[in-house]
Amino acid sequence: MAVLAKGGSSGSQLVACLMAAIFLVVVSSRGAQGGSIAIYWGQNGNEGTLAETCATGNYAFVNLAFLCSFGSGQTPQLNLAGHCDAYSGTCANLTADIAHCQSMGVKVFLSIGGGAGGYSLTSKQDAFKLAQYLWDNFLGGQPSAPGVKRPLGDAVLDGVDFDIEGGDPDYYGALAAYLKAYSGKGKAGKEVLLSAAPQCPFPDQWVGKALDTGLFDYVWVQFYNNPPCQYAGGSAANLVDAWHQWTAGVHAKYIFLGLPAAPGAAGSGFIPVGSLESQVLPALKTSSKYGGVMLWSRYYDDQDGYSSAIKNAV
C-alpha cells in the first residue's frame, strides 16, 4: 500500500490513492490469473462419454485420441478404442457430444499419432494431403467433397493435436503450416488451433522442428516417463530446469505441464497433489507462457479424481 507524503494537497492525495488502487487491481488480477486443464479422451471405453467428460467442468481442452495411422499412401485410421468404430460409421454419434462440449467453451481437438499405430510423412506433398484430409473430414472443409466421410459427423473440431512419437520429423512443420492456412476458411470460418505433446527432453526429437515454426498455440509437454526432466524423489529441480528450457526455447502462446492423472497412468512422473501445489506450480507460474496442466488420461483421472483435486490450484 502506498504511503502518502505529509503536507501534500488533497488533490494530489486523491490522485495517489487512485493510482495505488489501480496498481493493486492490476497486480491482483495478474496474480489471480490461473491456467486450465487439458485431457486426453478416447483410449478406454470405461472412461465415460465425451459429454460426461466435458460436463465435469474440469477441462478447457479435450484431445480425441487418436488418428493413429496416416501418411505414406495409407488411408488415415481413427481409433477411439472402446467408444465407437469409425469404419462402420458409429463415431458419427459423437457429433452431439462434441457440440455439447463446445457449447460449454471446451475446445475439442483431434490428436494425431500416439504411441501405437503406424504413421509417417515422407514429403511436403504427403503433409499437404494429410492436411487436406483433416480439413475435409474433421475441420471446416466441404462434407460433400469426393471421398469425404466425416467420421465424427457434422462436428467441426477446433484444432489438431500433434502427439507424434515416430516418423520422419522433417515434415510435421509443413503439416502445421498447411493446417494453419485453413484458418478463417470454410463455413464456420474458425481459426485452426494447433497443439503438440512433446516429450520433456528438449528439443523433442519428433516435433522439435515443427515447433520451431512458431505456429503452435498450445504445447503440453509430457513431463513423465523421462526421469532426467521430471519430478522424482520429492524434488522438482529437474522438472523446473526443463520447464525453463521449454518456455525460453519454444515460441508458443502457452506451455502446459503434462502429467499422468494417476500413478498407474505412466511408468513414472506422477506428482502427488500436495507436492504439485506447493513445489511445482508456484515455480512454473512465474512464466507468462504458463497455460496450465495436461493430463493423461480421462480414464485415469476418473479413477483418481486428480483434476478435481488440483483445478483450484492450476
Automatic annotation (TrEMBL):
Q: Which GO terms describe its cellular component?
A: extracellular region
Q: Which SUPFAM superfamilies match?
A: (Trans)glycosidases
Ranges for domain GH18 come to 35-314
Coiled coil where? none
Q: Per its UniProt record, what InterPro entries does this chain match?
A: Cts1-like (IPR045321), GH (IPR017853), Glyco_hydro18_cat (IPR001223), Glyco_hydro_18_chit_AS (IPR001579), Glycosyl_Hydrlase18_Chitinase (IPR050542)
Gene3D superfamilies assigned to the protein according to its UniProt record, in alphabetical order: Glycosidases (3.20.20.80)
Extract the signal peptide range.
1-34
Protein family:
Belongs to the glycosyl hydrolase 18 family.
Q: What is this protein called?
A: chitinase
